[in-house]
Structures are given as structure tokens and as C-alpha cells.
Amino acid sequence: MIRTTDDGDLRVVTIDRPEQRNALRPTDLEALDETIDETDTPVVLLRGHGPAFCAGADLDSVTDLDDDSRLPDPEGFARLGQRVADTIESSESVVVAGIDGAARGGGVELALACDVRVATPRSTLGEPGVRLGLFGAWGGTVRLPRIVGEGHALEFSLSGRVVDADEALRMGLVSRIVDDPRRVADSIAGNDHRSLRIIKQRLRDRSPDNERFEAEAAGFAELHRSNVDAIASSRRD
């Protein structure tokens, strides 16, 4: 179940299956994809309800992928998770992963797709799929080495071990350890919304460098024209 609460410039999206540690079934992934896709607030906080952020894929669903006609086949399930992660990454909103408690497997992968990842001191992260004969296939093999480097990505994924918040920070899996992730999302939402959108676009751009430089200059010019009065006021202050 996916719950949403809008509070001004912030939408809080909560994965709400605490009794299953917020593990995601195909229907939950579809709902999450739709929720993020339709969001028009400048900032989204993605979090879990209860003692876990997200335990990843619901194992009952994973077990039945080849046997239950109501479920996608294994490749389709992987592509569904990839689609949700892509929706998060490409959203015009800045998406903050508020990791409080356990993040495992697909939960880590969805967090990797977010623009900002913060953890509380009690958070733990792991990719335990290797122990079950699986691996992170919701875009994890692409995003993880991009974010933490190939060496950390290989060791983290091949060992299946769980890291605490401090080690996740040292690896670069998260950028900060905070008591309340909502405060980070609120602080970002307090910035200029057009700047947030353009900064995300520019930092997410995978085009050749010369094209990115041109787009950067154009984006700066767009913001300057829109905010020249505010810039002048700030200079006077």
C-alpha cells in the first residue's frame, strides 16, 4: 500500500506495509510508479512506515512469478522495478529517500534512484539477493557502481552483507545521517523551485560534455532572467 500526504511544496510518499517490512508486490510497484509520475510538488520524500524503509521485493510474489498468472514473469517483474526506479530518477521533482531502519534489495535500489539519500542512525542497508541466488535487478547493477564506485559496488553486492548508517555514509550510499529525514526534505523544498528543477536536470544529464555545458549556460540564463529582481535585492541586503 502506498500512502501520500501533500504539505505545501512537499509530497510525502509512504510505503505502508509495516508487517511485511514494507516489501513491495507488483501492485505496490505500480501504485508507487503512478504516485511519483503524477506528482507536481517540487520535492518528494519517500519513506517507509514502521521499523523498516523497504525490504525490497515481496518474497511471496517473487516465489510465484512463474506460477501465478496474475503476476508478471521474472523478466517482467525486473522491468517493472526498473520502470519505477526510472520514474523516480527522471521525475521533475527532487526525490529524497528518507531511510529509517532496514533497506534491503529493491529498497536499496529505489533509494539509489532518488536524488538525495539520507539515513537515520538506526538504518541498515544490504543487497542479500546473492544468498538466495538472485541479485538487484531494479537498476541496481547500473546505479550502484555509478554512485559508490565499482570496488564498493562489487564487494557490497557479492558479499550480501549488511552495512550500518556510518559505513553507508563512508561508502557514499547515503550523503548524511540525520535524526529526521523530513527536515532535509523541508530544507530543500524551501529553495527556489525552478532552480531545483534545472539543477536536477543538469546533474542527471548523460549527454556528451559539450552539450551539457551548453545546457548549463542556457539554464543559468533562464534562471537569471526569472530571478533578477531577487538577485538584486539579495545584493542590497
Automatic annotation (TrEMBL):
Q: Name one GO molecular function term.
A: catalytic activity
Q: Which SUPFAM superfamilies match?
A: ClpP/crotonase
Q: Record's InterPro entries?
A: ClpP/crotonase-like_dom_sf (IPR029045), Enoyl-CoA_hyd/isom_CS (IPR018376), Enoyl-CoA_hydra/iso (IPR001753)
One of the Pfam families matching this protein, by short name = ECH_1
PROSITE patterns with a match to the protein in the record: ENOYL_COA_HYDRATASE
Output the PANTHER family linked to this UniProt entry: ENOYL-COA HYDRATASE, IP11341P-RELATED
- Family as reported in the entry's similarity comment: Belongs to the enoyl-CoA hydratase/isomerase family.
What name has this protein been given in UniProt? Enoyl-CoA hydratase
